[in-house]
Amino acid sequence: xxxxxxxDKCYTEQFANTENAGIxxxxxxxxxxxTETGNNCIKWKDAQMSDELRNMLKEKVGTDxxxxxxxxxxxxxxxxxxxxxxxNAKLGWEYCAINECGDEDED
Length: 107
Hints:
Radius of gyration: 14 Å
Largest sheet: 2 strands, parallel
Strand order of the largest sheet: 1-4
Number of strands: 4
Strand content: 5-15%
Order of helices and strands: EHHEEE
Helix content: 10-25%
Distance between the termini: 35 Å
Number of helices: 2
Shape: globular
């Protein structure tokens, strides 16, 4: 499922052992599409990715042809916060410039 929530402005950190630890998390479903270094995200379907990642997308989302460039974290075992593919990134992907929920209110 890859629903979009235009009101979603922050993320809740996700952990691979979420179910076992009893931690409740809310996956980010907003429209942010810029990385922490200021690069624009590219569409998921246009990214060059490993077969393992492509298979994970098919399992979690139902397709690897995701036609948007929004930041996501489909699998917490890969990363604990939203990320995206960037044409300018050395690794091919980067974490996104999105605040963790609660951080925006801290001094």
